[in-house]
Amino acid sequence: MLIESAPPGADIEIDGAFVGNTPSTINVAVGNHDIALKKKGFADWTKKLNVMGGNVHLSAELETTTP
User: Full-prediction pTM beyond 0.70?
Assistant: First the structure.
């Protein structure tokens, strides 16, 4: 699974566990997963994903938080 974000450098969490920073290619088991991208100064981006195998490409547009 390729996970990217704009801007890059967000923390990637899969099922609550930190697995790296964007952009990254992560091996994810088949099944349901909770994906979260977190970056200071930006709103958390979350997605529930049912991985069926094959190549998955996630691209997230992170939104700034207002101070």
Answer: yes
